[in-house]
Amino acid sequence: MTQSQIDSLRAQRLEPALHVVDGRRVPASDGGTMPVVSPIDGRQLTTCARSTRADADAAIAAARRAFDDGRWSGLAPAARRKVLLKWADLIEARALEIAVLGVRENGTEIGMALKAEPLSAAATLRYYAEAIDKLSGEIAPTDPAFLGLVHREPVGVVGAIVPWNFPLMIGAWKIAPALAAGCTMVLKPAETACLTLLRLAELGLEAGLPPGVFNVVTGEGTVVGAAIAESMQVDVLAFTGSGATGRRLVEAAARSNLKRVYLELGGKSPNIVFADAPDLDEAAKVAAHAIFRNSGQVCIAGSRILVERSIHKGFVEKLAAHAAAIKVGDPLDLATQAGAVNSERQLHRNLAFVAEARAAGRQVIGGARILQETGGYYMSPAIVADAEPGDRVFREEVFGPVVTVTPFDTEAEAVALANATDYGLAAAVWTANLSRAHRMVRAIRAGLVHVNTYGGSDLTVPLGGVGQSGNGHDKSLHAFDKFLNLKTAWVKL
Ligand code: ADP
Questions:
Q1: Does ligand 1 come within 6 angstroms of the Cβ of 485?
Q2: What Gene3D superfamilies does the record point to (predicted)?
């Protein structure tokens, strides 16, 4: 990847994006479109289809037909594998083009986007494609007069609703295990990140996915997302996004067909630094990157630093130095380490959290709108150095480059502060004391606890939250559980 390759890709003019339904690229039935605005400069890039409820229902019907007639679920697993592997190859061959397209739309720095988006989606497709013919059913250890067979069957039509921060990576965490398992899917991208998922769907058709197996419908959450959530034809809903939307999806499932709803709802993840951390410089550097890369728009971001009081002041200084060294700016510049905030709305939300902390008398370092002359949405990293547990910025997910630092005195107090949240997605503990590290892993309520590191866990381990961070797991072989039903055959011999 060179700067000149990126610059020539960023100059490409984009055609209006159509949605991909039943093997075809089609506009909204009433011709409706939505502007796609780039957070890099605030300018309109193109438009995408603003689907109606009828369009969403048509896509769901296509996925239903494709599931029920067995054109995909009825194939041998090895045949599905072949298509998914080809799909991964096509994505990888166009990785830079797809990554640049995504960055133009959502503002993630290109270095991270290339790895986390097309390359990670390709790797995810390969992982589940390779796994699907290695899963077997069971023969239960029953009374020998009977035979108890446990089959694993695809659940049917999956509705996926995904966010704007890592649309391909998060999308692929749902697409790959669902399709490998034999399900079909209707996916709704976020309003501000639909182009790469549409590209993915086009490449899927090129790879040989039968029509209707993977459909992408763009439009508003309250229209297209709601239609998927309320549909009687969708068997499982797989969602990543906000808690408020998650609640609506559960309600919609209850009102309709009791479809299973899997939710990944973000977090307010504690990053706990003890004075005996093996390397406090490293801890401060990683802590800065754990919240400020991609301008904090990461569901597992380490947004609450808890630090032992004896090192609080020194740690804040180190953190501030690392934060100041992070290069914020044009996400398509290879030197940039933190790109744009996804939308103007999100930028103002982030700044409001900072202003509120300042007004409450907290010590706030950074946190200003910058590069306004570009027309884009950029913000310098913000550190609230003495946040209190009652502060809104300590309790609510900002989803921006804003971190709180709060001192603690004892291990028990660190645990209490860490768990003083409705969320429970990720956490980290920095200590050289092995026993303490394992005690903390047990005591912290979260789906993922890092020890002496933050982020970077791979596809082989599950990611899922507890509490109001959601339920179910993306990644790892456990992700299949969402998309495969168990069926028992009980046979008298
Ligand atoms: P964020 O605040 O990060 O944008 P959302 O939960 O609003 O988080 O968005 C995540 C996804 O949920 C997006 O694809 C969005 O369009 C969709 N969405 C938003 N509102 C609804 C809704 N009422 N029903 C279904 N999907 C929705």
A1: no
A2: Aldehyde Dehydrogenase, Chain A, domain 1, Aldehyde Dehydrogenase, Chain A, domain 2
**243 Cβ below 6 A of ligand 1:** no
CATH number of the domain that residue 182 is part of: 3.40.605.10
- Which residues carry out catalysis? 264
Q: Note the pLDDT of residue 443.
A: 98
Same domain, yes or no: 210 and 238: yes
Residue 86, both tokens: 């080809």
Alpha carbon nearest to ligand 1 atom 17, residue:
221
Chain-centre distance of CA 28, in angstroms? Answer: 26
Tell me, what's the pLDDT at 56?
A: 98
**Ligand 1 center–CA 245 separation, angstroms:** 6
- My answer on whether 288 and 418 are in the same domain is yes
**Is 323 in the same domain as 374?**
yes
The pLDDT confidence band at residue 223, using thresholds 50, 70 and 90, is very high
Question: 391-409 burial string, b = 16+ CB within 10 Å, else e?
Answer: bebbbebbbbbbbbbbbbe
Can you give the pLDDT at residue 7? 97
In a domain, 463, yes or no: no
Number of H helices, E strands in the chain: 16, 21
Is there a single domain that holds both residue 146 and residue 282? no
The protein residue with its alpha carbon nearest to ligand 1, atom 25, reads: 225
Look up the domain containing 357 and give its range: 270-458
pLDDT of residue 215: 98
Nearest to 105 by CA among 10, 188, 183, 185: 10
In a shared domain, residues 311 and 201? no
Q: Please tell me whether residues 117 and 147 are part of one structural domain.
A: yes
Which tens digits make up the pLDDT trace of 103-152? 999 999 999 999 999 999 999 999 999 999 999 999 999 999 999 999 99
Residue 179's pLDDT is what?
98
CB atoms within 10 A of CB 145: 8
Q: How many angstroms is it from 45 CA to the middle of ligand 1?
A: 22
Question: What is the rounded distance in angstroms from the CA atom of residue 277 to the CA atom of residue 279?
Answer: 6
What confidence category does residue 242 fall into, taking pLDDT thresholds of 50, 70 and 90? very high
Closest ligand 1 atom to 190 CA: 14
Q: Atom 16, ligand 1: which residue's CA is nearest? A: 221
pLDDT band at 491 (very low <50, low <70, confident <90, very high): very high
pTM for the full predicted model: 0.97
**If you search the block for the tokens 């040989």, which residue do you land on?**
208
Q: From 240, 245, 255, give the residue whose CB has the most ligand 1 atoms within 8 Å, as the site to mutate.
A: 245
The minimum-distance atom of ligand 1 relative to the CA of 346 is: 2
The reply to whether 77 falls in a domain is yes
